[in-house]
Amino acid sequence: MPIKREELTEAQKTERQISAMGDSVNLINRLIAAGNHTTNVHDTIDRNVRHLELMVAKDNIKGSGQSLTAFTDAITAGKEYIKAPVVEG
């Protein structure tokens, strides 16, 4: 029996995308607050920064009425954080 896929409206899709973006913001902020400069942390922050950059450029996100400040702030903070040298061990 095939899995029934939930049909979402465009507004619901945008809400889910914004929610996922919020998860990226929270993760970036938590990792920065922890202060670890490992390769894994830097890679995770970089992936989430790139995700946010792609998403804030989407028309549906820009036109959602949602403030993008938290997202752009996390992008800026994440980029700044990963400029620091990696310290393993």
Describe the protein:
With 89 residues, the chain is an all-alpha fold. It has a domain of 59 residues. Helix content is 67%, strand content 0%. The chain has 4 helices and no strands. Helix 1 runs antiparallel to helix 2. The longest helix has 25 residues. It is globular. The model has no long low-confidence stretch (mean pLDDT 95).
Task: Give a short summary of the structure.
The protein has 89 residues and is mostly helical. The chain has helices spanning 10-34, 39-56, 59-62, 69-81.
Amino- and carboxy-terminal Cα gap: 50 Å
What average pLDDT do the residues reach? 95
Number of strands: 0
Q: Which structural class is indicated by helix and strand composition?
A: mainly alpha
**Rg from Cα:** 16 Å
Which series of helices and strands comes N to C? Answer: HHHH
Number of discrete helical segments: 4
The stretches of 5 or more residues where confidence is low (pLDDT under 50) are none
The proportion of strand residues reads under 5%
Helix-strand blueprint:
Blueprint: H1 10-34, H2 39-56, H3 59-62, H4 69-81
